[in-house]
Design goal:
Layout: E1 5-9, H1 14-26, E2 32-37, H2 44-57, E3 62-64, H3 74-81, H4 93-107, E4 112-115, E5 134-137, H5 147-153, H6 159-167, H7 175-182, H8 192-202, H9 204-215, H10 239-249, E6 260-264, E7 267-271, H11 286-295, H12 297-306, H13 319-322, H14 325-342, H15 363-366
Parallel strand pairs: 1-2, 1-4, 2-3, 4-5
Antiparallel strand pairs: 6-7
Helix pairs in contact: 1-2, 1-10, 6-9, 7-8, 8-9, 11-12
């Protein structure tokens, strides 16, 4: 049997930080490895958060960097390789070169279980490696298994096997109900998502043990394990839980989430950053670019220096155009209108309000 490595990547954002604390606290017996991929272009607040987590964990987090033999920061090294072509939503070479490749080099060919901080209130799958030796687990969700595992489990090809696995799984007082659901084949009136949710609604623990029985017959990394402690996990953690974990642990919430006041025509608004990642990340919203300009003007100027004719961070305007007084005023006004419509509760953070009208983040960077 090959020894399975359990790894958790810390991006510098709230979710991965909270997951590191959660796993260390709830599953201390797991021999967990913690790592972070450094692009050389993170905010100081990100590096501070990682230091705080190291203090809490009592270990040194493994620092992964691409182009280690280069005299330049990893991002700058690869920017030259791409002839100054800035990354964008259509060409995310930064994610591939600065995040994925260092991670896959780090784990090599070992069987690896990678823990990902997708929350229970999010509708996204997150990064799933194409390498067979890497399996993703989502401890904050009711369904801790990745999409590829579920689709194989419920496939018609494995239908007979699934019935056998069900007979060997204890659903307790829900046995009859679970057996009926499992015995029903997928069709347009009963989709994979419906079957999954029906089983999770019936018995989460029983379903997890059913999946584990299936994995034992597969080539997934967990096939090498005789026991997996998360099988009995029924926790579903949402945004409020993440902030609670960070605050109660003493690690603290990344400082860039804190609300900062701004004034437009006598009206006071508030802005912040909504995610971790490079300070010039092309996924950030225009209001976040304004935040960067006003809170970290030196970094904004550095981001401007990367732009040249035909190569800008935004698709519709350059950073020089974005910070013209009238343009910044309009961005703030539009943002304040959205904030008024969406604002609920009294959270000291704005990420409940920041929406994704201007693009969504890359899962490999932000979890």
């Amino acid at each position: 049997m090959n020894k399975v490595r359990h790894v958790l990547g810390i991006s510098g954002g709230k979710d991965s930080a909270a997951l590191a604390i959660y796993m260390k606290t709830k599953y201390p017996s797991l021999d967990m490895e913690f790592y972070t991929c450094d692009t050389g272009k993170e905010l100081d607040e990100t590096y501070q958060l990682i230091k705080n987590i190291e203090i809490f964990l009592g270990i040194k987090i493994n620092l992964l960097q691409a182009a280690q033999n280069s005299s330049e920061a990893p991002f700058d090294h690869f920017l030259k390789m791409y002839s100054g072509y800035l990354p964008s939503s259509n060409s995310r070479w930064c994610t591939k070169k600065l995040k994925l490749e260092p991670f896959e080099k780090y784990v090599g060919t070992d069987p690896v279980v990678s823990y990902v901080g997708i929350r229970g209130d999010e509708e996204r799958e997150g990064y799933i490696s194409t390498k067979k030796n890497i399996q993703s687990i989502f401890p904050f969700r009711r369904n801790i298994w990745s999409e590829d595992v579920i689709s194989k489990l419920f496939s018609n090809q494995n239908f007979e096997k699934l019935q056998t696995f069900a007979n060997n799984t204890d659903f307790g007082r829900f046995n009859d109900k679970a057996t009926k659901i499992i015995a029903k084949k997928l069709d347009p009136s009963f989709t994979q998502a419906q079957k999954l949710n029906a089983l999770l609604d019936t018995d989460v623990k029983g379903f997890n043990h059913l999946v584990f029985e299936f994995l034992k017959t597969s080539d997934y990394p967990l096939s090498n394990e005789s026991f997996f402690p998360l099988l009995d996990n029924e926790d579903v953690l949402v945004r409020e839980d993440i902030f609670r974990i960070l605050e109660e642990s003493g690690v603290g919430v990344p400082a860039y989430y804190n609300k900062v006041d701004f004034v437009v025509d006598g009206k006071t608004g508030q802005y912040s950053r909504s995610r971790s990642g490079c300070y010039f990340c092309f996924f950030q919203q225009r209001i976040e670019w304004v935040w960067l300009y006003e809170q970290h003007p030196d970094l904004y100027k550095k981001a401007m220096q990367y732009e040249k004719e035909g190569y800008t961070w935004g698709q519709q305007e350059s950073l020089e155009e974005l910070i013209q007084p009238e343009r910044m005023k309009r961005i703030k006004e539009e943002y304040m209108k959205r904030m008024e419509k969406k604002s609920q509760g009294k959270s000291p953070y704005l990420i409940d309000i920041l929406d994704d009208d201007e693009g969504t983040g890359c899962a490999a960077c932000f979890i």
